[in-house]
Amino acid sequence: MPLVNTKEMFKKAYDEGYAIGAFNVNNMEIVQGITNACKDLNSPLILQVSAGARKYANHTYLVKLVEAALHETPIPIALHLDHGDSFELCKSCIDGGFTSVMIDGSHLGYEENIALAKKVVEYAHPKNVTVEAELGRLAGIEDAIDVSTEDASYTNPAQVQDFVERTGVDSLAIAIGTSHGAYKFKPGQKPQLRFDILKEIEKKLPGFPIVLHGASSVIPEFVKMINEHGGAMPGAIGIPEEMLREAAKMAVCKINIDSDLRLAMTATIRKHFDEHPSHFDPRQYLGPAREAIYNMVTHKIKTVLGSSNKAN
Ligand code: G3H
Ligand code: 13P
Ligand code: ZN
Fold first, then answer.
1. Disulfide-capable partner of 19 in 10, 61, 147, 248 (CB 3.0 to 4.6 Å)?
2. Which segments of 188-239 does DSSP mark as H helices, in order?
3. Is domain 7-305 given the CATH code 3.20.20.70 in the classification?
4. Mutation test residue for ligand 1: of 58, 82, 106, the one with most atoms within 8 Å of CB
């Protein structure tokens, strides 16, 4: 099956009350671990590439890895640009085979955000590429940009209808309490998601797919494993999985997960070297790391996304 855009995926997810996992990819083992898990659970999938991943691994290598995944798996896969920060970057990904892009103008003023998203939509839609934009601002670190909690802001439900109508975007990322990275809440702070805002947005945009960024749960087992094997990640806390599962039953159709994959991979490699200090063949530690990615994605599909057996 060729790459698909997110249109049909989101329609089915919205109607049936589940979400599609959008997992960040940076190398072959990550692509394989994710797609094999989705294949085994017959789940649709979004593989997403950040500007940083594109710089690290090279556009062509990543596209070819995803093409290989398509060849090996019958499930629908969309290749998505994560946090595109300019029209030029979106255009380059669209011209280079991506089927979906995010234009992230969330740091801009409202009118500038609209103008930029509209420009990307006008280029993308004739090429059958879907577009995600963001309104409201998440805290946390993405690429080199660190948004402090004070600079973050919840999405204003009063703006969403106007934003979607004027831009023509296909999905909207909103800020309701998630944030990027492994330190989403301070120790002692109660994790919370603003379901009241999500409900308001759902009312303003019936049937329209909503996206949650910063949706890793920072599973304590992996933080513990990292800390027990020479790492230092005290106080890493994420969003409880039950809350994300609730959001997936509502208008949230795309859930972005990167940090949980990073933690699983890093914890596994750290443990591996502690137990096998003489190993130096990369396959000896990248093999288990790939399996850890597979297990994490399997877990997410079952506990958060609800996307098993939704591939056709
Ligand atoms: O939200 C950002 C993703 O976790 C990607 O991170 O920009 O470091 O590749 P990155
Ligand atoms: P996490 O850092 O919570 O995994 O979020 C990833 C993300 O939003 C990618 O765009
Ligand atoms: Zn994000």
1. 248
2. 195-204, 220-228
3. yes
4. 82
